[in-house]
Amino acid sequence: MTTERPTDIRHSRSRKRARIRERVLALWLCVLLTFPTGYLTPAAHAATQQPEPEPETTGPAQPAAGDTGETVFLDTEVALPVDSLPPTEVRADDYAYDENGKIPFNPSPTRAVWLSALCPGLGQIYNRRYWKLPIVIGGFMGLGYATNWNNNQYQDYMQGYRDLLDNDPSTKSYMDFFPPTVKEEDLDRSWLEQTFKSRKDYARRNRDLCIIGLVALYALCMLDAYVDASLTHFDVSPDLSVDWAPTLMQQPDRRGRPAVGLNWALTF
Questions:
Q1: Which of helix, strand or coil describes residue 114?
Q2: Which one-letter DSSP state was computed for residue 83?
Q3: Of 6, 46, 122, 174, which cross-links 160 as Cys (Cβ 3.0–4.6 Å)?
């Protein structure tokens, strides 16, 4: 027969109490995890007994009785009269019409260049700059006439200069530049050669300059069409403003002393 000592009995009882405390603590943690904090409070219980509120309507609020005039409703809570709103215009970025209900003219710079390259003046017509068309036509007609006239002068002087150098008595085209009363024997042949050479060179130079002018005018028409189409909506109002203020500027010397100056900006 075995008898338990008092110390063993005390140890076994303490172990049982510890196991009981662990079970009670685990049960309490399970309850806390199952129900959220404040679920069993009186306020939460009262909230569960109240009916759910009906959803608010998203439609515009009705104007109050006695209001006159048109009213713009910004939301369901604020209503402002039209007269109190600032005179601003709100439109989408891709809105194609202006305030008059018309499509604003917006030319394409690329198309204007290609039209001007196809025929000088078409780019100006496309940009609706009709007043430039007489300038373009007049410039081409004047340069074309000058080119043709200088080319004819060059051909005539060139042929006369050739006839002077070939020593052929039957070729006397250079005498066509003189009146019929002038005889060939009365003319100095070296003077004739020098004169015809300088005249043909002068006519050729003017002809080449006219051709260069035609090419420059052609390129200028293309450039004008491109710039005009790009700056169609550029603000050309005469309103200018100048902002100026005194400032200190660093002098470009070894001492580095500041100098008093004036800083200004022109806004246009």
A1: helix
A2: G
A3: 174
